[in-house]
Design brief:
iron-sulfur, binds iron/sulfur cluster, 4 iron, 4 sulfur cluster binding, metal ion binding, epoxyqueuosine reductase activity, alpha+beta, 2 domains, single chain
Length: 312
């Protein structure tokens, strides 16, 4: 190990940057006691709607050391996805920014794998652990806060002081003990822009989202019809909704990402209103082949488009 210069944490941070991550922090793999109570109350109030998986593996979700045996540290990584591009046609149905490019799961998984191999090969040969990007019961935002990467805004998103909130969170849960990063203070202050701007009043109080009312849930996770009470309130959103982030001053400062692998797909951004409306199953498969939009499936996307059209 004498060839290595710097602490293990510094080396890992530096490698994470080389691999394309924008921020990196460390926290202990332990029970998230306060967050556990909040999650329990949220689930008891059925605010997760039909996302039944949120209630599964409860103990693992609130304790990374139960998810990964022998875990000591969670390395939390952020990837900026702030796009520089916009959808070309202002009247076209709007999709969430995270879905502009290739599905981030593939891109980030590959980077996580490389970081894991680096730690095992160069730092700690006895390394054991797992890595995840949105693929396991993990309270990613809470872990990011504990790892000093930001705070949870009143809009429920993680906010990083420089990157804003258009960030993907991923993590390595490993058996190597590393010193935890220092958490930072929340900095929403007296602002309530996100709560005021939400078209469906889904932010029922600061940091509390009633998913059943959230356009993001209604257009992606929800497998039923969209309830009529939301007619006329969808703000032309066909897949996801960024409104509570668009109005947040912390996102105005974020710089566009430069990650080639997350580059926006021109074919998606150039879809006109008419082409969205006439989209066939074949076109859907072709255009969204590598996109996160395929999560909604063709039938879900068609349902969303028809709901927008039926607006009175
Ligand atoms: S994503 Fe949209 S609907 Fe959901 S809380 Fe934010 S503003 Fe409201
Ligand atoms: S809009 Fe204001 S209150 Fe909402 S998350 Fe941003 S800073 Fe916080």
């Amino acid at each position: 190990m004498d060839v290595l210069k710097g602490t293990y944490s510094q080396l890992i941070e530096s490698k994470a940057k080389d691999l394309g991550f924008d921020a990196c922090g460390f926290t202990q793999a332990e029970e998230l006691t306060a967050e556990k109570e909040i999650l329990k109350k949220w689930l008891d109030n059925h605010m997760h709607g039909n996302m039944h998986y949120m209630a599964n593996h409860f103990e693992k979700r609130v304790n990374p050391s139960k998810l990964v045996e022998g875990a000591k540290t969670v390395i939390v990584l952020l990837t900026n996805y702030t796009p520089k591009e916009k959808q070309s046609h202002p009247d076209a149905p709007i999709i969430a920014r995270y879905a502009y490019g290739q599905d981030y799961h593939y891109v980030i998984k590959d980077q996580l794998k490389q970081l894991y191999s680096y730690i095992k090969d160069e730092i700690y040969p006895s390394l054991e652990g797992r890595y995840f990007v949105d693929s396991a019961p993990v309270l990613e935002r809470s872990l990011a806060v504990r790892a000093g990467l930001g705070w949870i805004g009143k809009n429920t998103h993680l906010i990083h002081k420089k990157l804003g909130s258009y960030v993907f969170i991923s993590e390595l849960i490993i058996n190597l003990t590393l010193p935890p990063s220092e958490p930072i203070k929340e900095a929403c202050g007296g602002c309530t822009r996100c709560i005021d701007a939400c078209p469906t009043q889904a932010l029922t109080s600061p940091q509390t989202l009633d998913a059943r009312k959230c356009i993001s849930y209604l257009t992606i996770e929800n497998k039923e019809s969209i309830p009529q009470e939301f007619s006329g309130k969808m703000e032309n959103r066909v897949f996801g909704c960024d409104i509570c982030q668009e109005v947040c001053p912390w996102t105005w400062k974020s710089r566009p990402h430069t990650n080639e692998k997350l580059k926006a797909v021109t074919k998606i951004l150039e879809l006109t209103k008419e082409r969205w409306q006439e989209l066939t199953a074949e076109e859907f498969s072709e255009i969204f082949r590598k996109s996160a939009v395929k999560r909604a499936k063709y039938t879900g996307l068609k349902r969303n488009i028809e709901f927008l059209l039926s607006k009175k």
